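Q: Hi! First time doing this. I have a protein sequence and I read that you can turn it into a structure. Is that right? Here it is:
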Amino acid sequence: MSLGVLLEMTNIPKVGFDIRDISRVFFHQFNVSLAGVYDIQLTELASRKDGQQKKYLSGLARCIDQDVSNGDPDKVRWLNPANAKDLRFYQKFGHAPYWIMKRVEIFPSLFDVYNTKLSRLDSACWLRLAEQESEQRVHDAKRKSKKRAEKKSWGPEVFWDDQQKQTAKDAWKESIMLNALMGDIDIGNDDQ
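A: Yes, that's right. Below is the predicted 3D structure, encoded as structure tokens:
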């Protein structure tokens, strides 16, 4: 199985941080359309509590600083990378630039933090929105034009526009009720 096929498979979850540029490169240079990708930047945005601003995106360094515990081995290596060989991927992927190895190694820790926050029933709508918006980023990357620079720091409107946010929540509730009526979900068992 080739790497391109793996990247296009929807049933194998993958994570990345701000996948817009890498999606564009994969599509336009290698004819690979990413699938099954969670954009950690969007899961962070989705995991913010109600009342926190959700218009502006956070950068990778800020996410690591705020959300990964100081005792996490990946964060320790992120903060104190005295030797690139300390990175787990060094032996297999020694040809990859150091800064890429450093970024990729922390992705699982970051995604775990946000996925845990969003896995509660009362937050599942936000996880689904982050997944949908990640798919939208991949789709948008297939176009030749780029977003204006100032809008690149904005989160998707569905996260901060009150009307779109309410419409998305209502659609989520309708799908839950429909699934419950069809027997797919038991809404009486709240595992919070």
